[in-house]
Amino acid sequence: MPSFTILLPVIFVLSVCSVGGLLVAALYPRLLADAELCRRIDLIAPTRTAPTARANGIDENRRKRSVEERLREAEDKLKLKAKERVKPSLLTRMRQGNVGWSRKMYYLVCGVSGIAAFFLVLSMGFATIPAVGFGISAGLMVPHWYVSVMRNRCFRRFAAEFPNAVDVIVRGIKTGLPVVDCLKIVAAETQEPVKGQFKILLEDQAMGLPLDEAVQRLPERMPLPETNFFAIVIAIQSRSGGSLSEALANLSDVLRERQRMKAKARAMSGEAKTSAYIIGGLPIIVAGILYLTSPQYVGLLFTTQTGKLVLAACAVSMLCGALVMRKMINFEV
């Protein structure tokens, strides 16, 4: 005979199965009716909701594929332009910096700068060969430096004013104005150089060029990340549709966040830049003070061959140190 401890679990399992069977037998008709009701609802509901949901899903997928294709095309175009134009031409750089010189004028400035530097070095008591070297260096570097400074200054001013222009376009679109009218407001009300660039954009569009292609020329004149973002947003909206005001509003937030990050980077690197200026200028200041107090002691550096070699080596080492410090304290955002 089996013991009671073995029979107890068997009795419990059989009791649970019996109660479960009774419950299923009692509730089966109601469960069957609910299942039939759900089946009928499923038969009726898809005829009303499924096509719309399916159509919305298809449209959303098409939109996503179109946006992805447009982004890939824009990226390929930017890479192709970067390969074709590794370094912009002289006229392009002058136009980007709003320098109204022609090529002949640029070369004339080079010649005048070289001649002025030649006579200046001669007046300081140097020989003819060093004066010629300084004249050639000044003729090549001074105009190039001036154009680079004006170009970078123009880029900074454009990047600072461009988010305001985007906000003007967003507010105009939200009030119901066409995009072209919003661009006209930007070309009339904003500050330079944004004002001039949008005038050129409107002139291109008035000549029959589509708006997205006219906007694509803006990064060529102003090679900045901000203009690339703007051109991509306009191109995607013109091809795949969507809310242009919302996209441009997001772009404006991104541009302003970039400005805040740049300002934070400048604040963080301010102390390092000041230290670099002090370290770089201290040897020159000390040498000048020593020359004023004891010119015979320091004059050996300028009158002897060994002193001139020492000065040349010091100049090269200081230039290398300045370039290294400049690379260390410049943050790209």
CA-based shape? flat
User: Given the helix and strand composition, which structural class is it?
Assistant: mainly alpha
Succession of helices and strands: HHHHHHHHHHHH
Radius of gyration: 37 Å
- Would you identify the regions where 5 or more consecutive residues have pLDDT less than 50? 43-54
**What kind of oligomer do you see?**
single chain
Average per-residue pLDDT, rounded, comes to 76
Helix content: over 70%
Task: Enumerate how many helices there are, as a single number.
Answer: 12
Major sheet details: none
Beta-strand percent range = under 5%
Q: What is the straight-line distance between the termini?
A: 87 Å
Per DSSP E runs of 2 or more residues, the count of β-strands stands at 0
Topology diagram in text:
Blueprint: H1 4-84, H2 90-96, H3 103-123, H4 128-174, H5 179-189, H6 194-206, H7 211-216, H8 218-221, H9 225-240, H10 244-293, H11 295-303, H12 305-329
Helix pairs in contact: 1-9, 2-4, 3-4, 4-5, 4-10, 5-6, 9-10, 10-11, 10-12, 11-12
Task: Walk me through what this model shows.
- It is a single chain.
- The protein is about 85% helix and about 0% strand.
- It is mostly helical.
- Among the domains are: about 15-85; about 265-333.
- The protein is flat.
For the structure shown, list the relevant keywords:
333 residues; mainly alpha; 12 helices; 87% helix
Brief digest:
With 333 residues, this protein is mainly α. The protein has helices spanning 4-84, 90-96, 103-123, 128-174, 179-189, 194-206, 211-216, 218-221, 225-240, 244-293, 295-303, 305-329.
